[in-house]
Amino acid sequence: MRRARHDLAIFDSRRNRRFKRRRNWGQILARTLTGAVVLTALLGGWVLLRNAFATDEVNLRVISFLDQQPIGGAVIVADNGRETVTSDGGLATLAFDAPTTLTVSAPGYKAATYPVEVIPPQGSIALSMYPHVLQGRVTDVNGIGLPGATVTLGDRTLTAGDFGSFEIVAAEPGTVVAEKAAWVSAEVAWAGEDNRVDIVLEPFMVKGLRVFYDTAGDAAAFAEILRLADETAVNALVFDTKEEKGRVLYDSAVPFARQSGAVNVKYDVRSVLAQAKDHGLYTITRIVAFQDPYATLHNRAAAVKDSENGGVWTNSQGLGWMDITNRDSWQYPIDLAVEACQLGFDEIQFDYARFPTDGDISTTEYSVGPVDSEMRISAVAEFLSTARDQIHEVGCAVSADIFAIVLSVYDDQGLGQRVEELSWTVDAISPMIYPSHYGRGWLNLDNPNDHPYTVVSDALESASLRNVGGTLMRPWLQGFSWSPAQVLESIRAAEENGGGWLLWNSLSLFDPDWLPPDG
Fold first, then answer.
1. What pTM, to 2 d.p., does this model score?
2. Whole-number Å distance between alpha carbons of 421 and 429
3. Which of 101, 230, 234, 404 satisfies CB 3.0 to 4.6 Å to 433 for a cystine?
């Protein structure tokens, strides 16, 4: 009996120990899992805190791949979510651990990513970006480039080069606007997807009348000119501010004009301009450039000399000429042009920007010595280019009057005027296409003056083949010795072949029947 109880006691003791062992393993497992969770939470929290408050900053520099120039305003983002923005010098600092990936974006540049496996010992990383490059051309409707056109995209403005081409580096999406004096501006929306935009400009079709200075100074006569413009297609007026005898016809403040005694006020420029603007008219001033007896007497050193007597050379009318090969003669007409632009004219038109043709040309003597055709052509082109640059700065278009004969022949006719070179220098060329000035037999015509459409069309068609610079061809047409039907025929030829027209009458006596109706 005692044996049995002893054995039962041993069994109960072993059973209790077995149950205790089972409870201990469960507790150990639970405690282990709890510890793992806590440890994971601590590690995760440490990582978050490390990312949030890391102090190991890396120096970064963002540059353009094309020219290595720094890029300001670039946004750099690391995998840890931290970001920074570069200064104007392209510099920034950012805290991150390697390995990571940096994402970089900047206006005008293609977004890029850069894997960083190891931070360099020096702690500095350079990141290069490829810019968006927008290329294109500004042309007329015939595809002829328009050099000198202004192209604007956002806050970027540049000037189209040869053949009207342009390139904008680091271009941002927006509206591309093209403008050129004497042309109608145009714009194209650019979404940034394509890398090319071509813009076509239409010429501003000037349809103008010449206003004689006495007409401008006579209120009733000028009112009649304005009435004609209101009732017809006329949209522009051409005023003389310096005429063939060197007189400056308004109260100019240009020192040389006043010192030489050239100022001879015939009308109030500000008043007539205000009236013309009230009628919505485009205004042009005609400035006679180098035929100028006042200037030759005031600045003999820059005048054309007479090789026979050493004095100032004069033409068959007794008028002296300034020496276009001498740059000292250039600034006076340019100063008058700048002043006229500042007074409110839209366009400056140079006449007599050439070499003299009447009188004893064999005795002319220039500062550069004997001149040949290439020297003459170069002198005229350089003067007009210099004038254009200064006048464009104050906001006016620039044009030049030329002899119509140079459209149809390939030499300069002793004038220094050749279409190919002139087409690069000014915004518009106004050849004086007066059929009454052509001799019998021209184009096999017995009397060219009887064939206005044929003569004008032929001249402008010849010019178009040589207009490599894409300037406007806006002819002077004769408003004299013709019937209304003949004047209208010459206008039709100009509108079909050119960039507008100007009608010349020495006294501004225009027959309303000469003019096309409005619209």
1. 0.77
2. 11
3. 404
| pLDDT tens track for 198-207 | 999 998 999 9
Q: Which residues, at least 6 apart from 352, have a Cβ–Cβ distance to it below 8 Å? A: 244, 288, 289, 290, 291, 401
DSSP state of 164: G
Report d(CA 128, CA 25) in Å as an integer.
Answer: 61
Please give the backbone phi and psi of residue 227, each rounded to the nearest 5 degrees, phi first: -65, -40
Beta strands in 233-375 (DSSP E): 236-242, 282-288, 305-306, 347-351, 364-365
Q: How many whole angstroms separate alpha carbon 438 and alpha carbon 452?
A: 11
Write the CA distances from 383 to 154, 296, 331, 351, integer angstroms.
Answer: 34, 18, 9, 12
Those residues with Cβ within 8 angstroms of residue 34's Cβ, 6 or more apart along the chain or in another chain = none
Strands 174-179 vs 150-153: parallel, antiparallel or unpaired: antiparallel
Query: What's the angle, vertex CA 209, arms to CA 208 and CA 211, rounded to 5?
Result: 135
Tell me if 407 sits within 8 A of 460, measured CB to CB. yes
Max CA separation in the chain (angstroms): 168
User: pLDDT tens digit string along 375-405?
Assistant: 999 999 999 999 999 999 998 999 999 999 9
Cis peptide before 293 (omega within 30 of 0): no
Q: Could you tell me whether strands 124-129 and 91-95 are parallel, antiparallel, or unpaired per DSSP bridges?
A: unpaired
Q: How far apart are CA 467 and CA 146, in angstroms?
A: 11
3-state secondary structure 210-258: EECHHHHCCHHHHHHHHHHHHHECCCEEEEEEECCCCCECCCCCCHHHH
CB atoms within 10 A of CB 183: 22
Count the residues in the chain: 519
**Dist. CA 211–CA 237, nearest whole Å:** 7
- Six-digit token string for 436: 């009454």
Here the tokens at position 450 are 């009887």
Is residue 274 scored above 60 in pLDDT? yes
**pLDDT value of position 75:** 96
Name the helix (H) or strand (E) containing 175: strand 174-179
Indicate the burial class of 282 (C-beta count within 10 angstroms; 0-12, 13-18, 19 or more): buried
Q: How many whole angstroms from its chain centre is CA 321? A: 34
Task: Measure CA of the first residue to CA of the last residue in the chain; give whole Å.
Answer: 139
Would strands 397-403 and 428-433 be described as parallel, antiparallel, or unpaired?
Answer: parallel
